[in-house]
Amino acid sequence: MLISIDEGDPRPLYAQIAADIKEQIRAGALQPGDELPSVRELADSLAINLHTVHHAYRQLREQGIIRLRLGRRARVAPLRGQPASRDVVEVQLVGRLNEIITEAYHLGLTAEDFRALVDELLAKGKDER
Amino acid sequence: MRRLLYHPLWTHLFAFGYLLVAGWVLYGAWSRQPQMQQHIPLQFDFNGYPIREGSRYELLAIPVVMLLYLLCSVLLDELWARQERRKTFNWLSLLDELIIGVMVGLLWGYLVAYFTKGFDKMIFHLPWTTMLLAAGVAVAGAAVLELLRPWNPYPDRMEGEDAAAIRQEIAQRVRLRERWVHWEAQNNAWINAAMIIASAVMLTGAVLSYKLEPLAAAMLVVSAVAVVLLLVGGMRTTVTPDRIEIRIGLIGLRIFRLPLGKIAEAKAHDFSPLREFGGYGIRWNGKTTAFFFRGNRGVLLRTVAGKQYLIGSDRPQRLAAVIGAAKEQ
């Protein structure tokens, strides 16, 4: 598992860690049941605060992506069997998608270009898995 | 998709069947109360005359040993199946049928001798024919099942991965990001369970013996704590932009640390834990210092000073790519 952070990235550090773990699960580098480093080990290796890593893990646990139990090491949770409800999708995805669509508009991409880009990335993710 | 077992249980059909037969035969013998007494002859000299008597329930040791042997065999076959890169014939998988067949033949021969000659006149010689026949049938059946068993690649073996693509992807991420860590673990749940049980046994021994042998009891407590702290939790390998580290146990004791600048070469490597290192754990074979808790794959590191280290890994191509990319950074 490769986790990276960058001070130049506008996202907070905990969000970068959470995004990295999610991306690796999507790419298949992390499988359900795989162990994650302890909060202390990861914080030491990245030279960041324990609370930053803990925040990232807590967020992933709330989203059902990892299992985090007291006294045990965090593990990747089983993949979701069915799509999340519309309400969850609204909260976690639609707002951010709108932001990306707006960015794409201002970068001069047409709706067709944008769809093609999304299809290309989805196909790449499928290959990786 | 991960499976629970990669070596199917039905390949042990004959061993399971014999175990049931042993249980059924024993139950049948005990239920013939008047004929089978509470105390029976259990040990015999070379001429077949009894030299020790014991409870008839001591015969239960035979199916219990058979069951334990079968469970060990299931575990070993599973470990074998997870290492296979193609379908191979696992000769070791026939060993449980051989042993269990011999034991069933022995039990059968004993009971026949007991019931035909009676308690007082019993003379017992090893029933070689029955034992060989029972073992032969079981081994032949198990060999057929072993040939028929399907092969399923264990996902962690990553045979299909494109090493060049991994290297490219990792090199890109390592170059673009300011701080990063590659982390992986070799942590077997069954080793953790075994260590906790061993520690509990030591603590029980300490409690029972502290009045008679306080020093021995204290040593047992220290050993139990050391076993839990150092051997539960497996081995974790961490690569950061400047070093590679290995930690073990619950406390994360660092047992290896090497600056990446001292590494001349890092490559994925297949090895034989038993033949090359005589087992698992922290090993040295006169040429290479090795750290591995499972599997037979890892990354071979060669330092600029000419030393060799072998780091066990479930995904050695990925680990080697990370080290390679970090060195180029």
Strand order of the largest sheet of chain A: 2-3
Intertermini distance of chain A: 15 Å
- What is the 3D form of chain A? globular
Mean pLDDT of chain B: 87
Domain tally of chain A: 2
* Helix-strand pattern of chain B: HEEHHHHEHHEEEEHEEEEH
- Which structural class best describes the helix and strand composition of chain B? alpha+beta
* Range of helix content of chain A: 55-70%
Name the chain pair with the biggest interface and residue counts per chain: A-B, 24 and 24 residues
Share in β-strands of chain A: 5-15%
**Assembly context of the chains:** heterodimer
Polypeptide structure, described:
The complex is a heterodimer of chains A (129) and B (329). By secondary structure, chain A is mainly alpha-helical. Chain A has helices at 13-27, 39-46, 50-62, 86-106, 111-128, and strands spanning 2-5, 66-67, 75-76. Chain A has two domains: 13-76, Winged helix-like DNA-binding domain superfamily/Winged helix DNA-binding domain (Arc Repressor Mutant, subunit A), CATH 1.10.10.10; 86-128. Chain A is 58% helix and 6% strand. In chain A, strand 2 (66-67) and strand 3 (75-76) form a beta hairpin. Chain A is globular, with a radius of gyration of 16 Å. Chain B has helices at residues 13-31, 61-83, 95-117, 128-148, 163-176, 189-209, 214-231, 273-277, 316-328, and strands spanning 39-44, 50-55, 179-186, 235-240, 243-248, 253-259, 263-270, 281-284, 288-292, 297-303, 308-312. In chain B, the strands form three sheets. Chain B has a five-stranded mixed sheet with strand order 7-10-11-9-8, with helices on one face. Chain B has a four-stranded antiparallel sheet with strand order 3-4-5-6, with helices on one face. In chain B, strand 4 (235-240) and strand 5 (243-248) form a beta hairpin. The radius of gyration of chain B is 27 Å and the shape is elongated. The mean pLDDT of chain B is 87. Chain A binds chain B through residues 1-8, 29, 31-33, 35-38, 40-42, 45-48, 73, and chain B through 2, 155, 170, 173-174, 176-185, 187, 233, 236, 238, 240, 247, 252, 318, 322. Strand 1 (2-5) of chain A pairs antiparallel with strand 3 of chain B.
